[in-house]
Amino acid sequence: MHKHIERAVAEIGTVLLGKEVQVRLALCCLFARGHLLIEDLPGMGKTTLSNALAKVLGLDYKRVQFTSDLLPADILGVSVFNRDTTQFEFIPGPIFTQVLLADEINRTTPKSQSALLEAMEEGQVTIEGKTRELPAPFFVIATQNPSTQSGTYPLPESQLDRFLMRLSLGYPDREAERKLLMGEDSRKKLSRLQAVMSIQDLIAIQTAVDDVHCSDNLLDYVQRLVEHSRNHTDFVDGLSPRGALAIMRCAKTWAFMSGRGHVVPEDVQMILPSVVEHRLSTSANALVGSHGMSHKLMEEIAVIG
Amino acid sequence: MSIIWQIPRNCLGWILVAQFALILPHIERLPWWVMAAYAVCASWRVMVYQGRWSLPPKMLKLVLAVLCFFGIYQTYGTMVGLEPTVALLFSGFCLKLLEVVEKRDVYVIIFLAYFVALTEFLFSQDFLVSAFIFLSILLISTALVALHQHSYDTLNLSSLKKATVIFSQALPLMAVLFIIFPRFDPLWKVPLPSHQAKTGISESMSPGDISNLSQSGELAFRVVFDGEIPARKDMYWRGLVLSEFDGRTWTQAQWKKDFLTESEKESLLGAMTNPLQYTVYQEATHQPWLFSLALAYADDKTIKAVNDFRLVRTDNIHSRIKYQVISDQEAMYGQTLSRIEKTLEVSLPRTGNERARKFAEMTYSRSTGDRDYIDKILTKFNRENYVYTLKPPLLGEDTIDEFLFDTRRGFCSHYASTFVFLMRAAGIPARVIAGYQGGEINPISDTVLVHQFDAHGWAEVWLDGDGWVRIDPTAAVAPDRIEYGLENAMAEEGSFLSDTPLSPLRYRNITWLNSVRLQMDAFGYYWSSWVLQYKGERQLQVLQSLLGEVTPWRVAALLMTVSSVVLLIVFGHLIKGRGEPKAAVYVKWYLRLCRQLEAAGYVRDASEGPIDFARRVDRSNPQWKKTLLSATRSFVRLSYEQVSQREQSLLVKQLRRDVLSIMYQLRVK
């Protein structure tokens, strides 16, 4: 299984140069059965990463470009009157897929954003009073521009909370950028990407993650972190139990990806910024405190206590 | 099929250990077959535990019990008395192992064990024995703890640890109860061990019949002087006055049973000009006589003073006793001798030892007086070829003649006996005194130890005007015996304690061994005087110094105070334990390592994970980086991985080793 993981990382690395940690975190999010939000300025490779992820994992994927005039029916699907059968027939929207790439999710109105809500949490959608199951696995990989940019509708907190991780890619380092500039068109490369694992492999990894051991000492550490975020006035809102669960799930997955059968504090620290940053800060200061709050939290809590 | 309850493995192990510890001190006393019965019962129980055998049927148990009764009757010839009863208790204690079916039976065994533990005190209350019984009680408590623990180890040390904690919590309370609990005289007396032979000096003395004087290193008594300890050569501990001679054996005179009256005792005390005060701690002799220096006075209801200036107890001494004596060797008292006494103290058998009688008459006729005669006899012993030995030849009919003129080899009894005979033959009243001479001074406790091998016989002679005067003819032959003790006197012959090669007293020349022996002896003395003798006066004194005035309220207050302090401490620990879980050992070791590294300049931030820290330090490439990585690995595994108990203890050991190694290397730098 670890072979698959390493190959996936290497494969994605061919299109997204010099971002191994972010690639690993993104994979970690998916292996932990979570939805991923990639936030960065335009042109940083958000879409490339999301496309590559879907392709490499061998999943069936659809892409929706979110615009300000997008309607919920555009995502979920719509019933159309069939003249032959004289009945309304349901045309499934792009959400009926294994991976939904929601590009620039904060460009659309809250109404359309919330159409994603039920789908993300429950793996099902209700259209015209009828509940329809989504295929499994079902991932949403959304990208968004920083909310300070013009023409954005910031995601509501409730919806942010539904993303297991929020990643930022950041500028590439000099060497990686040089390679990028010298290399061929990334679109071509993207089309050449191959799936390195099957759905069975993916499910096997997801199940194996559940068996990773969490000792009492580690749970103590996580609880100290969570409690601190709730008690300390520097944090506007503390971490919710869902947030705490998210930390545990990601830490377990990270430990598994690192080839360990048990979680160590380093795993928690590794995934913590991506998992808690978007939960700790309100949407209003989302970018202001980027990477600030989670690091503050880590620094204030002793690992061994 | 019903479910069979089993004694937990750990508990069974501890019960067997505790039982063995209980039997151990009795091993010399119990008949051999009780040990065999224990071995059989214990192995049977183990087989039952392993599921190979089943418990014995009722009939067999009955037969075993009857066999035990029969065996005890066969061994002791009676069912009454201390030893048969203890043996019975022990055999029942062993057989009970075969009767454990339910948990409550284990309780029976354990509570019985507490009771059985105390039986040893009936035989000895030595501090070593007491320490061992404390240990046994700890082991029994461990079994009790183990009964309530879940463990699959055979002898889990955590049970012992827990029992030790509980035990030590009880200690302060025990100490207080020891101090304040009133000592009652026993309501019933435990019948005494019957086999204990009479030890110490005997009632009669017949030197001709002994060819090899057996000596023992046992303590006869111990003396604590209030003032300075007198010189060794002046310490003649009088015990018996032997006045009757039948030609072979000296015995106590039947007629001499007069005790001093109170007024006579008063005048004796009044006659003392230079009194010496001391306390004697005498071991059990099962005889009534006491030992004291010459002209002894004791203010004690149970002690009588005999008119030959000895002290005698009203009943036999069956356990260690203590008595205070005032003595003055120079007191001018009892300067008259009645006619009857005078006749009796010169009486000899009508016939026998003719050569000696003639020699006495001849020598006396050539002497200028009694004193000159005594000097002449002593000079004869001193100048002529007389030998002091512990291995004298046996003597025939005329013991005095044979010794005086033929064999010329003997120990103190020979010389004393012969000397007194020669005195009486010349018409001078004289008698043989049996007792002890000298003693060893233990500098640690400042006491004089008188051992059985210090037993001695000497003479007293009546001189008009001086009264009874002590003459030790042995001193004329072997002055070393009196000045330095038997060991030095016998250095050449090598016969000192030759029949007890293991006696530590034989090895007094090995300095450290001797100092250990003296330490043990001093401790035994303090034990006996402060623990065993802690009653009556002494208890009252201690209580008074503690409480000022001894009232029930104050005693109760003392008891309450100590118990509440103990309870508060225990309670405090419980509360503290609840608030924050106690840090595990490995966490303590790891944090210790971090502190040491911090001092060496490698600071781990509290929020830094151990692996990250190790990697960071590793980059600066210190000498001990491998050890640090190994320590970190152990710590991480202990903290975050699922490890079995066995693995855990191994890892903790490994961690400790690594931490100590790094600390050592840092220090060397």
TrEMBL record, chain A:
Metal-binding among keywords: no
Xref: Pfam families: AAA_3 (PF07726), AAA_lid_2 (PF17863)
All copies of domain ATPase AAA-3, residue ranges: 35-165
Keywords: ATP-binding, Nucleotide-binding
GO terms, molecular function: ATP binding; ATP hydrolysis activity
Residues of the ChlI/MoxR AAA lid domain: 229-284
InterPro entries registered for this protein in UniProt: ATPase_AAA-3 (IPR011703), CbbQ/NirQ/NorQ/GpvN (IPR050764), ChlI/MoxR_AAA_lid (IPR041628), P-loop_NTPase (IPR027417)
SUPFAM superfamilies membership: P-loop containing nucleoside triphosphate hydrolases
Similarity section: Belongs to the MoxR family.
Descriptive protein name: MoxR-like ATPase
Organism: marine gamma proteobacterium HTCC2143
TrEMBL record, chain B:
Protein's name in the database: Transglutaminase-like domain-containing protein
InterPro entries: Bact_TGase-like (IPR052901), Papain-like_cys_pep_sf (IPR038765), TgpA-like_C (IPR025403), TgpA_N (IPR021878), Transglutaminase-like (IPR002931)
Gene3D superfamilies the record matches: 3.10.620.30
Alphabetized UniProt keyword annotations: Membrane, Transmembrane, Transmembrane helix
Pfam families: DUF4129, TgpA_N, Transglut_core
Coiled coil: none
Domain Transglutaminase-like: 404-475
SMART domains reported for this sequence: TGc (SM00460)
Transmembrane segment boundaries: 30-47, 59-76, 105-123, 129-147, 159-181, 553-575
